[in-house]
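Supplementary Note 3. Input sequence used for the single-chain structure prediction.
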Amino acid sequence: ASKEMIYNQVKQLSPAQQIKFKNYMKTIKQIQKTGVPPVKKVTLEGMDKIPIKARNQILNYLRANKDLLGGSTAQRTQTYGGQRSYAQSDIDIYTKSNPYNRAKDLANILRNSGIKRVSNLRGEVHISGKKIIDFHDMNMYAQNIYEAEGWYKPVRTTITEDPSGIRVMKITSQWKRKLISSYLQGRYAKDYPDFKLITKSMYETARLKGVIKEPEIKILDFKPPKEIITPTKGGILTTTTTTTTYPSLYKTPLRVAPYFYGVPKKVSPFVYPYRLPKKTPYVPPYVSPKR
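The predicted structure, written as discrete structure tokens, is reproduced below.
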């Protein structure tokens, strides 16, 4: 999706919703400056499609080749609180090398380690007929950053590392993408839970660092239009509209943690690995307007 496409998708919201959406984007930009939450070690636990024996081989491969881990697997390293199920998730990896060759190399490593029914096809690795890894060209990653930021942000500024040295995508870059895909591109049911989880973790980071004193961030209080123009996988706008239907979970107004609406600071839904020193946030002096 291009910046122009996103602009056109925003226009499908009502005028009141457009104002809320744009203001929320501005808020996200401010909180992004805080930096990412503490990065936990990459884990493949709970990913049922990946045999336990294959997990260490995959992690060792990531450490050795310095490819970039994206998607929900990267998100898990920087989000705190209740996690969603990753049972059916696969792994997204971005590489500067040929994705097809990368998939072939990793498939061979898995076969040689004794994993059965391993295959590779067009940059994907499958085990027992189920896709477990999808390799992407790094240019696609750069395009994803442009889609969320609206400009070509240097890729190196969107990457961090876990304690073992695996390169992972910062959730500051995923945050906007989840917002856009949830509200503009027909993936509300799939991406909204991730968007909410990232929002909470980003806000808690800002609070612990003393950047935010009062709970100012709120999850957007509306769902996207049920009819929304959805781009195809290649990013080309389709001419027909598709109706997004929501599972029963989403038919009632979503409740977010009360923390966002003014519960005292000591009540927090997060479990953090450390406590940052409290700082008094800077408040610019009031300057009376000139007459």
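Strands lie at 68-70, 91-95, 118-121, 124-127, 130-137, 159-161, 167-169, 227-228, 242-243. DSSP finds eight helices and nine strands in the chain.
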